[in-house]
């Protein structure tokens, strides 16, 4: 009995799928990013799937990672993009309309102490309103930029409709609110 050697690799069919292209991997990553942006994936799920997509070796592995994230067609994206643009425009229009109606808050002169804002009479700007904390916020010039810092207020400080967590850079024309008391920042 003779011993037969295994067939040489050149005589066998290649059973491995073709290597993933960078474009295929990038498309899958785009679908995952869009799914996270639309709230279809939690942060942890998004991060885990991104790791798996980067480690994937086959197309079916990528397909499994994005199978539950149906992507909209071109028409749907166009309609949703248009609605988003119109919605964004109406928000800007409303903000511009309100801005002209808001009382102005002059930015302090450079070189002055930070402006403390709140209900306490010792503040530089005293606001007697139930939604304003005793020591609510502080406005100061730092490195040539105006910085608005929330000082742990109960009802929050916002800039252009977004709540300030810690501090935010502001400029003339921005809308600021301390609780429910709103102003439009203005330069001297």
TrEMBL record:
<dbReference type="InterPro" id="IPR012551">
    <property type="entry name" value="DUF1707_SHOCT-like"/>
</dbReference>
<feature type="domain" description="FHA">
    <location>
        <begin position="115"/>
        <end position="164"/>
    </location>
</feature>
<dbReference type="InterPro" id="IPR000253">
    <property type="entry name" value="FHA_dom"/>
</dbReference>
<dbReference type="InterPro" id="IPR050923">
    <property type="entry name" value="Cell_Proc_Reg/RNA_Proc"/>
</dbReference>
<dbReference type="Pfam" id="PF00498">
    <property type="entry name" value="FHA"/>
</dbReference>
<dbReference type="InterPro" id="IPR008984">
    <property type="entry name" value="SMAD_FHA_dom_sf"/>
</dbReference>
<protein>
    <recommendedName>
        <fullName>FHA domain-containing protein</fullName>
    </recommendedName>
</protein>
<dbReference type="Pfam" id="PF08044">
    <property type="entry name" value="DUF1707"/>
</dbReference>
<keyword id="KW-0597">Phosphoprotein</keyword>
């Amino acid at each position: 009995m003779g011993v037969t050697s295994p067939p040489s690799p050149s005589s066998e069919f290649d059973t491995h799928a073709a290597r993933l292209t960078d474009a295929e991997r990038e498309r899958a990553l785009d679908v995952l990013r869009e799914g996270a942006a639309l709230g279809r994936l939690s942060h942890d799920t998004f991060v885990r799937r991104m790791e798996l997509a980067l480690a994937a070796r086959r197309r079916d592995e990528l397909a499994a990672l994005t199978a539950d994230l149906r992507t909209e067609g071109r028409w749907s994206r166009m309609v949703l993009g248009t609605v988003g643009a119109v919605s964004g425009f109406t928000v800007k229009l409303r903000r511009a309309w309100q801005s002209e109606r808001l009382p102005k808050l002059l930015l302090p002169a450079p070189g002055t102490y930070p402006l403390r804002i709140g209900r306490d009479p010792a503040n530089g700007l005293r606001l007697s309103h139930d939604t304003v904390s005793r020591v609510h916020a502080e406005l100061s010039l730092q490195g040539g930029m105006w910085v608005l810092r929330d000082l742990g207020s109960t009802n929050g400080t916002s800039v252009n409709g977004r709540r300030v967590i810690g501090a935010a850079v502001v400029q003339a024309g921005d809308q600021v609110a301390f609780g429910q008391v709103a102003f439009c920042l203005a330069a001297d």
